Amino acid sequence: MIQPVPSRRDTIADDLRDRIATGRIKPGERLPAEAHLASEYRVSTPTLRSALAVLQAEGLVEKVHGKGNFVRRPLQRITYVGGGRTTRDGQHAAHAALSVTVHTTRIQARGHLATLLKVSPTSPLTEFLCLSHEGERPHSLTRIYVPCDLVPAAALRESLPYEGVMTCLLRLRPPLAEVREKVSVRLPTREEASTLRISSALGVLAITRQMTDTGGRVVEAALLVLPGDRAEAVFTTHYVTDERTAEE
Amino acid sequence: MIQPVPSRRDTIADDLRDRIATGRIKPGERLPAEAHLASEYRVSTPTLRSALAVLQAEGLVEKVHGKGNFVRRPLQRITYVGGGRTTRDGQHAAHAALSVTVHTTRIQARGHLATLLKVSPTSPLTEFLCLSHEGERPHSLTRIYVPCDLVPAAALRESLPYEGVMTCLLRLRPPLAEVREKVSVRLPTREEASTLRISSALGVLAITRQMTDTGGRVVEAALLVLPGDRAEAVFTTHYVTDERTAEE
DNA sequence: CAGTGGTCTAGACCACGCG
DNA sequence: GCGTGGTCTAGACCACTGT
Prior knowledge:
The structure is a homodimer.
Chain A: H1 8-21, H2 34-41, H3 45-57, E1 61-64, E2 68-71, E3 78-81, E4 98-108, H4 112-117, E5 124-134, E6 137-147, H5 162-172, E7 176-186, H6 190-196, E8 204-213, E9 218-227, E10 231-238
Parallel strand pairs in A: 3-10
Antiparallel strand pairs in A: 1-2, 4-5, 5-6, 6-9, 7-8, 8-9
Helix pairs in contact in A: 1-3, 2-3
The structure holds a DNA duplex.
């Protein structure tokens, strides 16, 4: 492992991290203004801001435009549970109150979406755009795509609450044979960054989920976007037999 | 979804992305120098660099210090296959030649590691630090931790090639009952960034893997770091019965 | 050596939140 | 209006790569 020279950014980030860890700045508290910190560390504001970006990416600090930088209270992590066992709230372990708003649209499959759902382009789909909030804070963004014939008419009424829509979907869905989830890191799009109120410079956890029924048909595809500074995805695989008997 | 004003960074990133997509700049080719692009777009170099960071995070462009920015050839993605079915090369689908170097160390469990392996602190562990290269390019970093009594003496000889070590480990390992993988995004540490030759401003995919045998003992814990601009993790869950019968 | 990207400066100006 | 963070400028200087 190579040991590079610590940059000013890293030095400042380390020092601030220590101030938080030792309780000199407490959870929920506001940090001194960026201009103040910059003069304290005798660096320019861009440099100080890049140090804050490190702590932000670690989930230690949260920036709020116009208000300041705040030490995040712990245990506000978002956990996505993989395996598609439950579809409640796109698999978030909802400890606090989560409110979800859904926008339902009929669209045509095209490009990547057609591939994912294994349908021909222009084939009709229903898109559920789910935005969940934890109190005031945006939490996650989920786009669920389902072939139209698997969507009951009742679910299309926009007035239905989120739970109702999902229950409808689950009832109509054939038994699943396989759930396939791809996890990657990318920067948020402009829309995602401002919708989720996250920095457009910080990565998001992007999860693509594909659910296939026993007939080999893709009954649902979902694109999830979780803020990278507080999200993690957990996947558990159980073995009933020796793992070396499995195919590869 | 909120529609913000596109920043200069986004405008430039969009334009460059288009130049790559339409083949005006071809895979493998070098982009014009940053100073040149900056004057072309009439922005300052930091602004131009932040636009390049977007493309870099998308995996379209690769920066090489002292040489330039290059359009990445496609299909150089790193795929981590979850579920722990195979331990060959830490689950990378190795299309090109992958060379892996291993450093074996005996350490004591402490802190997070003791929790992960469910052993008491100071309990002896063997660390396998695996750095894999794809040709000249660093590829991924894996730290595997195994309780010492599960490691055959032969595996500790540093002269053993990577394959030999892993085969030894697999032979001694009891049948697995569960593999649990946590995926998250974080910034690389200074060491990781320079070892993997990635920007310290771009997120990495961090995977924590915990393997438990049928007796409930954790037989292996692994920390994987994959460059966020190239990597994705795939998890596949198969159902033999209806998914709604499964426990939560 | 020349050319490239990497880090940093010391500001300017704009957008947001709150009184 | 004032204080906050967000974006951007027009450079300087250092580090890496190749000749």
